[in-house]
Q: What sequence folds into this?
């Protein structure tokens, strides 16, 4: 079941829409054209908007459809058609019909431009997710496999026709079965040598990074994940990306510590224990106006502490954010430049299937003096 | 300038929304919560919908915002907030605020679920395109480079931050500067040997296929494109994918015939001229209930005629449709099986950046008898 919202846009010369008579004339022109496509159409309310908002016509039609038509004085006309569609019901207006209706309206109203959108299916099970730069992306989700709320976040596993099962945390796409490239770019497979290495993973509750790292024969991996429920869900429904690594909490090759990662980092610190790699598989680099606030403080604390438990040759490896957010990435790099002792970094990017965009990853190490003068 | 439409969805137990008093109670609950986020909010109309459509509340707010709240008897509540935003204006509700408003409404109304969408920016310059399976995808388009209408179609070249310039035909994404993989999969670079080959391209007005094929040293290429205007636009704004091949209509290596491709195909046919490859770079395989109608007739005519001008070892190479449309692909394959003489095919797929999805390509050849009994 879903509510379907069909959106159509038009533009006319601003002169035709700038005053009340013009707005009324346009609304009067739209109504009979809509009636041909929407049986039972009748006007329910006509509102002259305050604040130079133009005019709005509210109509009702068969099948419980409501239609709002707004004429904006700047020359834009929007049509929103909304109705309830039960599973199996034929749509009142599918994308093809919406395009046809758009073409008729555009022609008859003598609009300079028009656009029809694929109908929005408001199903409340997460078909729509944002890109890093907050674009709206509709996914081919056909079912919700799992849904729970942990003390830390809302956890969903949904099924996408093209991506397989996908982990969704607090309404944001996190990792899908199709995302091996995410893990391989994060770990720089083929470029880094993990054989015999000691490694800490901060976060990583989906198990994919641990699973892939273990294939590279490290000496030992500590995975520090706070959310037991994420691991339980992934162990059940994301086996193709995490294998059986989430089945046990401790073995000869790794230990999963279910706690705030700072607890173990501080323990390592007090013991003077150092490792070869720390992976930051926690929150994305935030998108904010200034590098301040709780999340940035957390990111800096994690970075500072991680470099204290890294060997001089060690590396901090992390994902950051979408390539579409250069400001956020620049802010992160500026923060990196504030670390003491100083660090240097290399960036990699990869198109991540479940993000539908390029994602940036950092490999950060202690700064080395150039020209052999170290 | 754009109209911004902010959508929020909620669900409550159906019992709370099934009758008029329940619907009214929910609407009355929403109104004061919205008022905190939308200054100047006041009710303009309240409608009890016919056809068991539930109830609708239309509100107006500052900045010319209109807000419609619908309670559907099935337990869904939709909120649509719409206003005009001039370039440079601060949004009334950005995605973060919309998410915050959603969280407040969900909690206060005791909803089982809620969802906020990234605001829809109705700019009328093509930020939104459909996937093959008609999902709504918002692109990072920041400008329109070219716009014209030819006798055959509406032609736009828009600029995407991540994809470079992108050709849009009749409101559908066609090819972008980032799409070398499209052309390479269509031509099966590295798998097919075009050296010394005679090749016909049907369509291909963007010039990318011709440009890439010429790098493989074919004997001669005939490109049969009906729309001069597409070539003019691509020659100007898509140079990185077509080089200078669209600069001239005829040279030692190729000829571009600006006409219905059937004219040249029929000429070849009457002359008994045969070639090694025919590329179908025309329309997508249609998505329809039955393989009938004008487009299917055209596709079959093209296929039949192409195989008449192909050498016995020749191949017909074409793109088809999204991997998300298996029914359309199956229908196409069933049509292929009807061809006489019989053909066989191989499929390839590739993720096409500007389509944001996997696309299917066919390589079709005359059927060969197995076991050497030919």
A:
């Amino acid at each position: 079941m879903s509510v379907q919202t069909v959106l159509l846009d038009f533009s006319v010369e601003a002169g035709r829409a700038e005053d009340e008579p013009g707005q009324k004339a346009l609304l009067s022109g739209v109504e009979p054209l809509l009636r041909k496509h929407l049986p039972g159409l009748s006007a329910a309310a006509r509102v002259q908007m305050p604040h130079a908002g133009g005019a709005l016509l509210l109509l009702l039609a068969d099948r419980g459809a409501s239609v709002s038509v707004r004429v904006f004085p700047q020359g834009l006309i929007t049509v929103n058609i909304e109705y309830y569609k039960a599973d199996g019901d034929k749509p009142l207006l599918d994308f093809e019909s919406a395009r046809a209706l758009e073409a008729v309206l555009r022609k008859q109203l003598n609009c300079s431009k028009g656009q029809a959108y694929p109908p929005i299916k408001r199903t409340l099970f997460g078909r729509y997710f944002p890109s890093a730069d907050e674009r709206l992306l509709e996914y081919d989700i056909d079912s919700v496999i799992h849904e729970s709320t942990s003390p830390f976040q809302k956890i969903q596993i949904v099924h996408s026709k093209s991506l397989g099962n996908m982990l969704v945390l607090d309404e944001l796409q996190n990792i899908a079965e199709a995302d091996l490239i995410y893990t391989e770019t994060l770990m720089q497979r083929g470029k880094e040598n993990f054989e015999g290495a000691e490694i800490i993973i901060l976060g990583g509750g989906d198990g994919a990074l641990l699973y892939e790292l273990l294939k590279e024969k490290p000496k030992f991996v500590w995975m520090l994940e706070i959310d037991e429920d994420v691991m339980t869900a992934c162990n059940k429904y994301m086996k193709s990306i995490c294998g059986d690594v989430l089945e046990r909490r401790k073995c000869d090759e790794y230990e999963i510590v279910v706690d705030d990662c700072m607890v173990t980092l501080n323990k390592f610190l007090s013991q003077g224990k150092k490792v070869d790699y720390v992976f930051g598989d926690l929150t994305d680099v935030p998108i904010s106006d200034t590098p301040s606030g709780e999340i940035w403080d957390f990111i800096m604390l994690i970075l500072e502490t991680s470099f204290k438990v890294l060997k001089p040759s060690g590396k901090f490896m992390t994902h950051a954010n979408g390539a579409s957010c250069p400001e956020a990435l620049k802010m992160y790099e500026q923060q990196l430049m504030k670390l003491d002792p100083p660090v240097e970094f290399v960036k990699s990017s990869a198109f991540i299937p479940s993000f539908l965009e390029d994602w940036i990853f950092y490999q950060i190490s202690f700064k080395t003096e150039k020209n052999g003068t170290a």
Chain B touches chain A through 70 residues (CB under 8 Å). The mean pLDDT of chain B is 94. Chain B has nine helices and 20 strands.
